[in-house]
Write a structure and sequence with these properties.
alpha+beta
Amino acid sequence: MLRLFWQWLAAGGLMLVGNFAPHNPTRAYMEWIGNWYLTYRTTEDLERLALRAEIPKEHFSITSEPLGVDLFLLACKRKNSVSVQKRYADYMQIEKPKLGMFAE
């Protein structure tokens, strides 16, 4: 599936894929109370998935939120030499439309 996402991504497009890390501190609650079982992956697992999906190593990076529980594979089909991190930073600066009850 990741390979298809990469193939369908337009030139200059940014792909963001999330996954929980194995050391998720709320894992027991999610599984016992919520009956929510996830496939947990490490940064190394995400890197292997990206390479197996034939995403060139120079076109992706793996990052996380501050606690390191939510991992993110960022991949960019660059038209030029802009880095993945720069492309993501530019994307985050775009004003997003406000939707539904979460509008400010």
